Amino acid sequence: MKSGAFQKVSQSALFVSEPSPHMFGNPPNAVNDSSWTNKNWLKSRFHFSFAEYHNPKRARFGAMRVMNDDLVQPQRGFGQHSHRDAEIVTYVIEGELTHQDSMGTKETLGPGSVQFMTAGSGVSHSEHNLNASKPLRFIQMWFDPRRRGLKPNYGSLCGSKVDMADKWAHLVSDVEQSSMQTPIKLNQDIQLYVADIKANKSLDFCLKDGRMAYILCMEGKAAIKGSHGEETLDRHEAAHVVAANNMTISGPAHCMMIEMADAK
Length: 264
What we know:
Elements: E1 5-9, E2 15-17, E3 42-46, E4 64-72, E5 76-83, E6 87-94, E7 97-101, E8 106-109, E9 114-118, E10 123-129, E11 136-143, E12 153-157, E13 169-174, E14 184-186, E15 190-197, E16 202-207, E17 211-226, E18 229-234, E19 238-242, E20 245-250, E21 253-261
């Protein structure tokens, strides 16, 4: 793509997966349960090739090889499974996510919380919505690590500590960039921001030459102006921007921005 190029990823471009509950150790789907917002225990929107979805044109974006937008119904989840050689970041949009892993970690995180896991040489974990009446929605991303075989690690930040009202909250940065003061550090050149932009408010973001960004509208409707013109993202939709672009993003919208080195 040429400098300043902007490409919208519409909902119709996302692959929707609704796997059998037995695949992840869940009981059968509930019937006539008013607390369920979807008939299947999981509705996952894949932004890139993952599991049963294979699309060479949407295999990855720079160092990011997975972005899944997951909706999990009450008292369901992902049983214990293993990972290795991935930097995994999870952001909770609504509900409560309970995480447990082979490093001895167990915690429950609410809206606005972010967690990370360096899978490195190998780690196993589970992720559940233990709430009896509320669904859970979260974004999970996998990034390539800078090196393989790293020591497994876990960390998190509670949503109550994230100030993102009409501002960019810088949550994640590169562990090798000491000048960046963020609560979470990854073993990759990644900068992750979130913002809750109210109606009639806007935020600027300057994407510098040699960088690229993936913008996700998690809730609301985001109007984005820049050198590409103007584009609107609805809930679940995204856009990728390559090289220099001075953007203004207007709400009401709950957005995420993942910025990284251009993958030339």
